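Repro:
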Amino acid sequence: MSTVVDHQKTTTELAVGLVLAVSRLQHSKPARPRDGVGDLSVPQLLLLRRIQELGETTAAALAVSEHVSQQSIAQDLAALKREGFVESGRDPKDRRKSPVHVSEAGKLAIDSYLARRTKWLVRRIESRIDPTERGELERMIELFERLARVEGELDEEE
């Protein structure tokens, strides 16, 4: 007589596995870039992309949207400005505000990074994910997007 064992993981085990797997994938690196973008951290590149999405924004608004402190945003913005990837000005209605936007060099940095990273990931998918598994990968992307959406109520507990 055989016993069927349910190997389904708990929600906590799934959460830990997801954190570790995504972190490993995020920190896996393609070949060293030769385009000047390599010195930027992943968080800085994500912040640069977020500024591009928003158009023009302030450090305070970025801190709120990214769920980090203004000090953290200020440090990353300072690095992005030094590299010439972000430019700032003065708000004509409120001179205390210095809205930022992505410069042309910043747009090129984003495009270069995404092209390089996409090319690397395409090679990874083609070499490690069987064509019959592609539908599963597509479904996982949908689930990741749902997890990433800010819903308000759950995020306020943290």
